[in-house]
Fold each of these.
Amino acid sequence: MTFPDDLKYTKEHEWCRIKGNRAVVGITDHAQNQLGDIVYVELPEVGDSVKKGESFGVVESTKAVSELFSPVSGKVVEVNDPLSDAPETINEDAYEEGWMIQVEFGDAKETDELMDAAAYKKFLEEETE
Amino acid sequence: MAQRTPLYDVHVRAGARIVEFAGWQMPVQYEGILAEHGAVRERVGLFDVSHMGEVVFRGPKAFEALQRLFTNDLGRCADGQAQYGCLCREEGGIVDDVVVYRRAVDDLLVCVNAANRQKDYDWLQGHAFGADVANESDAWSQLALQGPRAAEVLQKLTSVRLSSIGTYRFTNGEVAGLTCLIARTGYTGEDGFELFSASEQAPKLWTALMDAGRAAGIQPCGLGARDSLRLEMAYRLYGSDMDDTTTPLEAGLSWVVKLDKGEFMGRQAMQKQKEAGLSKKLVGFTLTEPGIPRHSHAVLQEGKPVGAVTSGTKSPSLGTSIGLAYVPPGLAAEGSTFAVDIRGRAAAAKVVKTPFYAKKK
């Protein structure tokens, strides 16, 4: 499993890539692996507001439903629409093609609270113990 | 502490993901549910279903006793034949759905659901009608070899002529030198076999089947694929689609309830229910809008809850969202429409004929 160094991570297993005041958001390699074959995603629409720590959508595997939690607060400015027809992309490429939404956030301090790759890896180790 | 089948270590070594199911640590998937599902539909898959229980009726009263406890008619089941049906309470509620393997008139093996092993044994033992009832669940392992190439794979390991075993028939024979009850039964909708053997033989039998199936592309399969395969066939799952509070008539299993076969547990209650009319019925449906229905989602008619989804998934074979739900009789006819409440959103659904999936010829 890989956890790119240029990303920030949440305890709910989302990642985000910060570019200025934009955050690209997806779920981690660990999350997609735990879920198994992803067969459905439900994402917000452009213009919707999301709040840090609150649900912005769901991913579903054959067996299970899992909520998606936003790493930052702000407005959705882009949605990865092709995922609705090809949700398996999230399994195949969680960090690039499998991105979910882009959020324009107001409070940069929110991103400071997120984990870096090393901290997330440590968190995973503790979680599986 | 959850129980383990004799194959637990084999599963772990093969990289299976283990989950707890009905008090058992079972593999939910190896390769992935979709890959495993596809392997069974296209080629052949191997399942460890040793968590299922076996209760055996023996003695001069065995046949008569089980007839009193079983909704289907064992009088129409010959020696060497298997029959599906329900065990019901006096009030008609389903204790379990089971397959009876009639080895002889005085020797009938009842295959019961894992979660109900003890409950069923207690129930059957408590209403034995003079038969000898034995809980042999721990002594038996059970492997299911399922898929269009199952017979070809199994034939490599046995001198029993498999073409002579019809659907829902079985025989005793050796597989890879191990004594088995070889049954042409399953829970996937594909051709295939279920092999009952002594518990301690399971690892040997598993390895022999995996080796024999290599050229055919055999895939070890977990409970995830078992569930999606059965749901595409609209096979009921006890505990999800029915329980002690539902009758076989409500669960859409009237085809295994033989009200005219003579007296049996639950007959009078179901006779009355049939005459009075059902208040709910289990139907198969597909969603005509995006979403995946799941157990306990509400069925809505004009915005009001009138029923509940009992099973649902996105069908790996069909690509559509399918499910089973209890609905009022007025919504049970094919083509009826209702909505499913998916996390607060009403998704349109339509009642369809089941099975959802038709086996490839």
Amino acid sequence: MKTILFDRIDEPGLNTLDVYQRRGGYQSLRKALTMTPEDVTAQIMDSGIRGRGGAGFQMGRKVSFLPHGDMPKYLICNADESEPGTFKDRELMQKSPHMLIEGVMIAAYAGGIGRTFIYIRGEYQLQADILEAAIAEAAQAGYIGERIMDSDFSASLVLHRGAGAYICGEETGLLDSLEGKRGNPRLKPPFPAIEGLYAGPTLINNVETLATVPHIIRMGGDEYAKIGTETSTGTKLVSISGDVRRPGNYEIELGIPSREIIYGLAGGPPSGREIKFWFPGGSSSPVLTKNDLDVPYDFDAMAKAGSMLGSGAIIIADESRKVLDTALKLAKFYAHESCGKCVPCREGTNWTLKMLQRIQSGDATPMDLDIMASVQEQIIGNCLCVLGDAMAMPIGSMVAKFRDELEAEIEAARERADGAGLEEVVALGVADEHAGPIPVH
Amino acid sequence: MSPIPPVPRFGHGSRVPGWDDAVDLTKDPAVIPDLATTPVPEALRMEIEAAMAKYPDRRSAAIPALHAAQAVHGYCSPEAIDQVAAVMQLTPAYLTSVATFYDMLETFPRPRHDDIYICTNISCSLLGADDLFDAMVRAAAGDERIHVSSFECLGACDIAPMASVNGEYVGPLDADDAEQIVADLRSRRPVLPDKQIRYRRSVDPNVQAGVDQFVAGDHGPRADTAGLPETEAQTDRPGPSAPIEIEPNEPGDDR
């Protein structure tokens, strides 16, 4: 397959303007500036490209929602890549920062936007340093700033470093964070395209989506739409990790069978064991099993299979892994990252974590699984953002698909605990459960 | 994150009265400190003002400003918050609310020399991050200059299990690397240079196929060596990527 985003991405010096320009960089911006903003939007619309950050919303439609007219409008590139298992934007920004900058500028031109921001997660220090150097170079060369390439179009670009909060990857949480507040999500509507940053119309897109825009302009929207499937066009960067021989980022054409990615590209589990469960789109996606390996890897097929493509992060767990261990990691993560604004998410994530810990310590009964499943149902759709859903969907799918194993786990842990308890009583005479302070989490 | 001091509790779990005495509800809220009477280091003030100038609304600079103050003071101390508040003309309460929200902003004192974050999220823990974390804690035990903590997904599952050592991503690590990281930090050497992510090449076979199309000769430094000394940047060191070879199908794999 011909790579688009990853085309010769390891070329030495690609992070510099010289090499990027020699490879035809910023020609798409030049071409876009000779077109009208409406034509550029139409090209993006024709390409059918769907957001690569997780929700999969069509970028062209997002641009077209922006109100026309003379008003302060904003563009934010969401580079707060914190979804567990996802690391595609990291490689893209580190190796080809100018591709992202060019995409941001073209999208800003299409939307008539004068101020753009890249919100990068605080942990990506190397990538932020590289981007900062690239932005300075691009501004020096006149690709950012006043009257870009002698056109009437002007736009600024500011790199904003976050400070470590998963919730700031959610678009409205990101807006609050960028405004200098705690990153709490907002009520929608109004959607950011109408009222976003500083209450102005705001276009928010993922790094990968924006980095694709120069290629759409270069190839033409119709040509780009020929790649992939009818409703999931183009190529996608897939981050594969966990129990595979060759973890890493791969650029694939949307719609190829998942097996091809997991076994063909990444080599399957190194132990030669079978796959037990896998996340097809980051830790927020409901888990699939080895029976789902032939599902085509695109947005609609994944949704039909009961999961989602999400950010394109595949995490593989082989047969030797316990579902409970992964569920615990998952619940701990979401309980820690819940911002605390909505009750179902704040309480639901913590209750789920406590119930899973109870299974591990041998204090649970199979009825806890029913309670856990009902807690997940209470979370889904009842919060301002999808952080709670992001835990409820995979945990719910684990309880549904691996109930037998979890029940066996409960039984085994109870037996372990009972045995230990008995020995303790014999040794001490009396077991004092309440001795000493209770540890605070 | 530094551990929050535990609230004292009785054996039966209730909090000992007075645990929240630090909050005086009858006191007036702190006002915006006066820049004229609050001593702020010149460099810090300029850095914060430069950050404020980048945004249409000065409050957007809260995170960069607190980062800058943390670099000066070691953590977001009440003094640091006051200084930022004076420059940005915001209340200390507002800035405290921001500082307490984000994991990378510390509101409790801690030894601040070397930070090691071990990712213990799903992908890393599948490949042994919990053992690595234990090994790292043991290796750094007794060294007050090194601060080891577990962290949520750092976005580098391709080198799992991994760690961020003073912001430098290294991996894949095994338990033996823990000692080496501590030794490298003590002697102020670059940490595990052959495992740093900046040298890692793409594993995508389609990317590898294009390697021979690189224009030879006069090109800049490698794509991922920003921030390295000049001599280092020229060195073309392959990363620890697994070799690219499509292996025959698994037995029983009827693809």
Amino acid sequence: MTPLPERIARREFLARNTLGLGALAFGDLVRRDADGGDRRRRDLAPRAKRVIWLFMAGAPSQFELFEPKPTLQRLHGQTLPPSLSQGKRFAFIDGADAKLLGTERRFARHGQCGAWMSELLPHTAGIVDDLCFLRAVRATQINHGPAKLFMNTGFGQFGRPSAGAWVLYGLGSEADDLPGFVVLQSGSRGPRGGAPLWGNGFLSTRLAGTPFRAQGDPVLDLQTPAGVDPTEQADFFSTLGAMNELAAGTHHDPETEARIAAYELAFRMQASTPELVDLRREPQSMRRLYGVADDRPSFARNCLLARRLIERGCRFVQLYHADWDHHGDPSNHIGAPLDARCREVDRASAALVLDLKQRGLLDDTLVIWSGEFGRTPMGEVRQFLGRDHHIEAFTLWMAGGGVRAGHSHGETDEIGFGPVQGEVEIHDLHATMLHLLGFDHTKLTYRFQGRDHRLTDVHGRVIRDILA
Amino acid sequence: MTLRRLALASSWLAVCAGALARREAAQQPVAFAREVQPILAENCLACHGADPDGRKAGLRLDTRSGMLADLGGYAAVVPGKPEESELLRRVTAPDDDERMPPAEHGERLSGSAIEVLRRWIAEGARWQGHWAYQPLRAVEVPAEVPGLAPADPPGHPIDAFVRARLRRTGLQPSPPAPAHVLLRRLALDLTGLPPTPAELREFVSGRTTYEELVDRYLASPAFAVHWARHWLDLARYADSHGFTIDGERSIWPWRDWVVAAIDADMPFDRFTVEQIAGDLLPHATRAQRVATGFHRNTQVNQEGGAKDEENRVNAVIDRVNTTGAVWLGTTIGCAQCHTHKFDPVSHDEYYRLFAFFDQTVDGGVSAEPSMLVPRNDDEEAAAAAWESEFERLQAGYDDARDRAAAGFATWQPARAWGSNGPELRPEEDGSYRVLGQNAVYSTYVLQGRGGGDGFAALRLEALPASGLSAGGPGRARNGNFVLQHARLFVRPWREGAADAEPDLPWRRLPFAQARADVQQDGSASGGKSYPVATAAGTEPGAGWAIAPAFDTPHVAEFTLEQAVDAGDWELRLELQQEHGSSHCLGAFRVALGHAPADDTLVPDAWSAAWRALRVHRGRKPRMPTTLVMQARQHPRTTRVFHRGSFLDPRHEVRPGFPANLDCVATDAEPADRLDLARWLAHRDNALVQRVTVNRWWQQLFGVGIVATENDFGLRGAPPTHPDLLEWLVAEFRRVRFSRKALLRRIVTSATYRQDDTVDSAQRDRDPGNRWLGRQRRLRLSGEVLRDAALAISSLLETRMGGPPVQPPQPDGVFSFTQSKKTWQASTPPDRFRRSLYTRIWRSSPYPFQAVFDTPQANVTCTRRSVSNTPLQALTMANDPMLLELAEGFAGRLLREVQGDDRARLDRAFLLALGREPRAAEVDLVLGHLARVTAAHDPQHGWTAVARLIFNLDEFLNRP
């Protein structure tokens, strides 16, 4: 029998260096045997070590937030020229009949870089010199579910691994007592598309994002069961470990070692996770910076939690905030509901960037702020004013992690319908993210069903212009 | 075989000379399928494969004729002459500009790969089709090989194949597993439940033989429950529609059909035919129609903005791809957008398969059709009576409607759309049903060829429909609509003319007059009036409306100022509806003809027939329903979708089988799903049979003989034991496709019964157990773990069938779903049913199963991934559902075993693990028991022991 210190060292190795969430799974071994399996090579100098993705689920309107278009204001009320609308697909409106809609929001230039920003995002306006805007991003899917899938997995249907799973697959986790890929959610409901947005696809299940619940315990079954006191719980885990050690000595199955490690991590998570999510441990000033008022679930809490997660070695944190869809219905239009959404995320988004910067974490943490597509320059008229889904061009921003600060890439035409230069596809965004993390996106592959799959499929090019 | 090999080698010797050649001649000739084809598939076929679009230099290397083709004085391959073969010259070219594959596509070929190609060409470039697509090959059972420990039991053909291969690796088979280990394996594999102490006693004492226990387990209902779950993975079964709304659906009668079919050992060919096309069988029974639910397990996107036709097409695509994975073991999905790069399914052939599934009435945003599922004779009679009466009334309604429209011909052009988002779905009766976005205002446009016989009037039927608010015919909340203007245009028909063709202008056909059966009159109440003449444009006004005569058919008839003569016309009808608040038509039909003088537009017979139909719908007997496939009466034309997009249909295709996968001799051209089903189930379809037996093998050994169970194509893994796979298929045919007989054959082999211990030789030389020198420990599924805990705690409720149930789950599971679900935990005994019956919401699967890798039911799953995570540890250690079972287990031990703790512990181990505890284990467990009992009481102490046992690595695995 292997001496105990060596066994523990091996388990530590498996638990930490592989993924932080267990050890080599049997399914993976089989896949590798059968299929050729994984190819991961980090062959570029990494600029970023981790990613925080602030996902505005429902798709914010670039025309109300980022893109003042004087021509659009002038043409307000007119229909789109047929040369633009022909053959284009919208979810609800009719491209030929819909009328252009100027914005009622006021815009001003901010910072050294002079980026335009609307009055709806005053805090974000204060950090524009740390941000890099992509202003001509093109999406492919017209409905929310498929579009979010595409944004996350590079494909509009179920079955592919999410970007977070790919990153964890390539880099592993540095977290000792937490999952390496965590999903946080705020707003009225979960994002359209659901669990496949952070799914592992055909990669190992250990690479899937772990959704933390917004209230109470962040994962299910974290609490010691009712009636079991801490002494019994500790006794349970140590007795179980000893029993499983005996078993490992008889049949020599490496999976047993992995399971012992998994139970040890589970026990540590029981202790560490409540501390992680207890934001009262943060100083009052920090909670105020983020706008965390109380213990209720909020985007602000999740931003602060995201920083605490990456401090503890978490590799990929994704935040979803719901209800950015504004079609013109009473609860979703570009008036009061949009004001409310912006209030919910603006202060905390900016605070996260400032806080990371203060702590020296922004240099190697990539922050992405995006929806799944944009909104039309034409209005959608229901009971209120709204804008329909628009895939020709939209705006997002990134910060830290080796992207150029105070920079803008790409531009749309005078009414913001489509790109005129610096067009970026979602595969390009993925390629660039992987590049910043030290991967050639064409070489981070996994063999499945006879094909080497990539996050960028057969597409993607690194956006050189935004690299610092 | 050996003789042929010798002959080949000697003829080759005659051609070549020299020491090198003699050394090579001693080797076996290169095996094309195993050695050459993988090199070509990996490095060449992406550009030189079956796909004509991507093919470079006109060269294809996936067929022999392509390889030998004259490329202008030279050829890629010249048999027998490596030095003249361009293929070899290019893969060895020193210059990067010349070498293949090009630098941007991949690395240079390795020296050994080049050597294989060189030898293969030198040996004459012998070609074989891909093994998996060939007819069944006859194989002989190898003779017992010397040098191995004797097989126990001796003489099983499976062992002969495995041992012959094992001998070549130099490994020894493992000894038989100890009796209690073997029985635990067998019981868990066949029934998903651990063996009972009584069964263990019988078997260990030798009173009952292994074979008797195999038969007992195969005959038990638990077998059907357990093996049905495997099939449900393939079928992507769930109790909800999926996507974000994820509404509830009723399709559990199909799940019960699967259990019953497996329990009755329905032969796999019939099992296939009934699920693919049971509804098309002559005199199809209700059960055969229920069986077609297999392909109704597709998802439905009910999100606002989701398109009906897009939903339907996505469902059909899923059916094609699932059929490809489940029956053909082929990744057919690639051919949706382009010809498959590696496997022999062309873009057209994909849509020929698509055509089989394109002829159903299902799909779209509504999940219909469904059928009644009676549970007893009384319900059977009630269902039959209701259905036949419904058919009679429907026929009566159709007849009354058509009579009323005498002299008119229905016009249903291919193109029909509405502004602001609604979708106009053409129905089989010639009408349109308006779906999707309930637009505030919308103009409907119908455009296409028509009116060829000439016409003088246009007839618009505004139809009531179930599903419309207040019965319709409008989509406004009260069932009304306001047709402001109807405008008709004509121009000569020309194929492919643009909507606004400059040299082919539209000519407006003004109306002279109009009449309608009902015109909304507000004069009495001081409100507005909506006469039809205003819609015809002959009088100014607000348009035509019908309040308060909702939920009944109406007709407006518009007479042209000037009749249109016979001719080849294209027509365009615009129905403008801008009243607001969704006052748009919900269902309507258009006809052209010559108006009779003064007929009643809506005769009483027609409106009475509608009322009767509506009353009858309300009397639908209350009993379960299930989603089924239902064929259309009028076939759709299937077209190839360019690059996979349904918005870009191109040329027409007929149903057909992929030529290269077709080893079944057929003469008739296939027409419908039943032909497809019979082709899949055909006795000669070796591919389907290989894929099926391989998946069962995988279930019992963890990995199939073909490790890539969903990819038997060129890039899949070759079989580790090709002859054994062929033998299993032959055996499958011999036992007439009996699942139980084939499984019995496998589990009675010595290979299955081996020990699972990994010795160092095994670990070093065969870590993945490819050569089957041992059995393999397999982590149990979430379903089996819970079921085993239920059985051990004696709480298991074995009642089968019925609607899904809800065992307890932790609070807050739904915090990530878009629409919140309710989960009212069932009370006993439903609380303790087998996990097969646990409700499955696609958007939030039961967490205990999800954490143990139960697939999400979005797409077919041919093999579950097996993970090992701390979240599983947290679940097993802390989940209240499991703790309740641990309490039950403790109660049972205290109740059933009088006396000392040691006796109870022995009993606990026997129940859960099938063995006695070892001394070191006794010390550890009794220590834990003593400490917990001292702090609490014996029930608490034994609950702690039960919890400990549920968490043991040994409990979590099947040995």
Amino acid sequence: MLSFIIRRLLLGIPTVLAITGLLFFCVTTLLGSPATMMLGENATPQAIADLNARHGFDRPAHVQYVDWLARALHGDLGRSFATQQPVAAMVFPAFPVTLELAFWSMLVAGTLAIVLNSVPTGRRAIVAAITGLNILGVTVPNFMLGISLIFLFAVSFGWLPSTGWAPWSEGAIAHMKHLILPVATLSAYYFGAFSMVFRAEQRDVYRKLYIQVARSKGLSEWKVAFKHVMPNAVLPVVTFIGLAMGQLTGGAVVTETVFSMPGVGRLFVASIATHDFPVMLAISMMVVVAVVLMNILADFVYTLINPQIRLE
Amino acid sequence: MLTNWRFLAGATIVTAVITVAIAAPLLAPYEPNKSSILLLQPPSAQHWLGTDELGRDILSRLIYGARTSLVIGVGAALVAVLIGAPIGLAAGYFRGRIDLMIVPVVDLFVALPALILALIITVMVGPSYKNLILVLGFVMWPAMARLVRGQALAVREATFIEAAVAAGGTSAWIIRRHIWPNIMGLVAAQFAIAVSLATITAASLSFLGLGIPPPTADWGGMVRSGFEFLALNPAMSLAPGAATAITVMGFYLGGSAVE
């Protein structure tokens, strides 16, 4: 088992290097030197050349990449071109915001998806309603849902704050109030996606022999649904949650933008708008590493939960 | 299939959206890019949805926006299918080294967050119709390849394939005559779902400011500019948002109904 983890981790390293290298190459060649952005449109060629020499932008791409990588591994992610702050100092405070949003969204989406879809009801209307919710969750764009929720609850009813963020230091209630709408928005899509995955697995589990046995033992349909079917059908949802967490490291970009949350996603969008490479690269690398790691973790957890799958 | 309500609902919506897009010049009361001095007007008899921050009629921009969304959504899905389907087919049917090379690449791409990938590439190449279609198609082809590969793997185990091989059929003949017709339906369904995904991603890109540049009428961009004025005229951002949602839903319902 340990050898499996080590092997996958080792395999993951070239993947991360390859992707970040590719990104770095693309960014430096396609976006060119940030000199014009830093010095302004009217910079003289001499000034640009000086800046390039000073920061080392005139070196070949692969040299710059190795240099950046070496520094990144020591925790020095460079300085933002836009704010001149160390990138690490910009990203680290943003991380908990994103993490919290992701955590609550996964919790709400996962719980709702599993519980709602497990309820054993023959009534067509309820099944149709839940299926309808699943479809709505997956198809309604994030920003549309977010803005609609803001319009309803902040603008029209005035119950909740529309945007912004209140850290824990400002009190738990204020903090939670700022979280409700973003979490609702982000979890909608995942609720739909988790539901579909869960339902597919559920269909297979219901056909198994042990369910028939459980029923013939006299168990109520509810007990069958929650005690036998649900735990067995939950597996793909768990792996999905793992993968989703990896993706959400980059921040739920749209949700954070709509609600002006100071998370990694919004930082990323801002850095893209200003062509701020160091921030862009740092966050991209974070996302790639997280995705690769979570992939490995999800596979591993899957084999733990279902011993029938052998690790190869 | 015609009695399947999902498919019917989806097909109706898609037909409606396509009709609106084609008949835009006939349906729209004003020119979509024509600004006027009537800035930020709420809905009225002359402007059913009001006007935006440059005095342009929102309803007309909504109608013309259907064109932008459809072109990008369908275009990107086509690119994804044209690249992904043959690759997936090759991997699934021939297996061996081709499969071993393709699978890790595909798995990795599928795991990366699509929007972030699209953001990064778009900022590098610049947003235009062509670029957006290519970028979104590029982001979606691995998922398509993976699905087609799964299908091909399943079909190739069938007895009639074994019979065809025994009868001396070449790979090309077997693929064309037996494999492809059996996976065609699912590829079509996946195409529809890809259109819905491309439309959402394109709209999200526009919302974040990386979509089709102004002054083209584009739903995501309209939501972006309308967001500021939400309290003043909610229709400005809610209408294009709803239009996007309905379009996405139509394609999605149509595609998922086939399963």
